[in-house]
Fold each of these.
Amino acid sequence: IFAINARGEIVNWNIASQDLTGYLSEEIVNDNSILYKLFPDKPLVRELFSIQHSEKDIRKEFRMTELLCKNGEKKNISLQISHRKKAIIEDLHTWVIAFDETEQFQLTEKLIKAKERFEMISNATNDAIWEWNFEQNTVWWGEGISHLFGHLKANQITTFDWWSDKIHPNDRERVVKKLRDSAARGEKTWR
């Protein structure tokens, strides 16, 4: 949490802010250029200044904003800004709460890349690639389901029963039991 006065100076810089950025309170407080050091996104800083001089009460959120730490490390944060036209504490109109979302951002990026790779592999093969979600009892089908069997369009989700109903009645009970047993044992492949 930090607070900005009417001159654009940070006048309150708590321990969590120090831990997040590496800047001590003494390095930050009353330096009206520090916002430009912390936030490389200049339009964001200009908007902060604009909010801070507003004659209206404003609450605003900025998602996935880049923060530049003292050691040069870049972090992805979200900011919640609360500006009051009548200061709660003299000359402190604008309060900012920062949330470090760097880890979440990195995990999301990894997940997006993994999904892109999976989709590329799924589209490149002539196999019927599928994924069974046990908890929801749904099955996702890749491109091969339509190419090989003429069912569905690619990237469609069905129920497990939809798939098992396609198995020949003489084989259905045996195949489904074998698959369920394999899944219950945590086996990675099934044939």
Amino acid sequence: ISRNPGTPRGVIIIPIGLILSLIFLLFRMAAGAGTSTQNRYSEFGVNSLNLGLSYYDEGDYENAILHFNLAIAEEPGMSEAYNDRGLAYAAIEENNKALADFDKAIELDPSSAGSYSNRGTLYLSLGNHEQSLADLNKAIELSPKLAKAYHNRGLTYLDLGELDKAIADFDKAIEMTPEAMFAARATSSAR
């Protein structure tokens, strides 16, 4: 925040990036995102997590990782930060670090369907179909309405040549989220 010499007295210039970050955080709070983390963790930890998510959404994975690191340093038990840092590591293909983070997120919160789904998806990308199916099955067991787990399990079955199972999972993902054209495209390629 600064005041440029050429601006009228009383006018403050705020960088657009700061404004957008604040708007993003306000929308997340208004939508209820992070509500559970806000009740369990310090404000600094939650803010670091939210800033990391903002950078992640912008595709700035290095800054996302930096902020997830800050959240973890402040709140070592914050499973969400490990999961989200794992996603950022996966995005830059640091797969061993991503797997370690998904493992830690699951250790801290064994009921996190999202962490199982993310780890299963990473295993799929690494060609480990057995572990991919195990994690995606667990994600679906924990959260039967998690469309992305059905979609990714369908991709695993497709890789394995089990077309009937792949189509059933793609259809289930589409049924849960009709706007999920990603599953529709996968279904058509399986057929």
Amino acid sequence: KAQGCLRANIAILIDWSSSEQGYEGLLADAAKAFVSGLNISENSIQITLITFQSDATLICPLSGDPNFISDKLNLLYKMGASGGTYVNDAVKIAVDQFNIDAKKRNASDIIIIISDGDIGDMPVTEKTLLSNIYYIDVFAVMIGEDIYNRSSYKSELGYKNLSKLTFIPNRVVISSSDDLVKALNQLDLCN
């Protein structure tokens, strides 16, 4: 868990595509619970929150202000999931947010992708992440209805896609939507 991080910029990228319809409240609850368990401040952990579907939306710019972040997280409850699953623009926004901070302080940059892994722009997203592989650690939490059925084509494809984006398969945690907070807390972000 990120509690051991001295200085980290964490970008949480949440799949807000049509495959997540009906789960928006669970995703918002999990993001809030995860963030509230972190030691957020301008001198320690800063958070940026980005949703992605057919395009990406910066919900919360990189911040170390827990109240500001909480207010921005509340916006998720008003948003409906729709569209395709295109993560590359969200990755680019995260990199831009990290680059703004890079001039101010020396911190680890971490991306957490929460998705079912049915990603429509895999090749370009892989290329974007590869160009930043030495600067950014990527983790993923795979969520969805059929995630534990590894013989399911959609489930297997989602796991393979997320493993490609993290570059290290053990950085992908599989979770039901109900256990998302637990899965996020299992990520070994700063060790």
